[in-house]
What does this fold into?
Amino acid sequence: MEDNPADAALVRKALEEHGVEGELLVIDDGEKAIEFIQALDVDASAACPGLAIIDLNLPKRPGRHVLERMRLSERCRHIPVMILSSSDAERDRADAARLGASRYIRKPSRLEEFLSLGAIFKAALTAPLE
It folds into this structure.
């Protein structure tokens, strides 16, 4: 869930650089993201994503609400959820941990550092579920 098209493109490129195949669904506001999660809980034939990457600063509903709703999901609560945020505030990190984020990553400012995140995302996709 990312509202910045440039950051979404960088996530896509980071995944490609590390050989991660699959569909990347970009949801650009927190309200739509929560509706998406609710729809997954209703439709038993819909597949949960393998990984959620959430920005804390989303329009309409903040990323922490999306994370909280993901962890309350009957069907998808166990997927890895990465917080990818420009915030380095201790409160944001603590909230994310309390709400069940798998990992908190501050958005890198350098391209090569951003692209290296693909390895972290790939590892989360291949790690056994807890």
Helices lie at 5-17, 30-42, 63-72, 90-99, 111-126. The chain has one domain: 5-124. The CA atoms of residues 23 and 49 lie 9 Å apart.
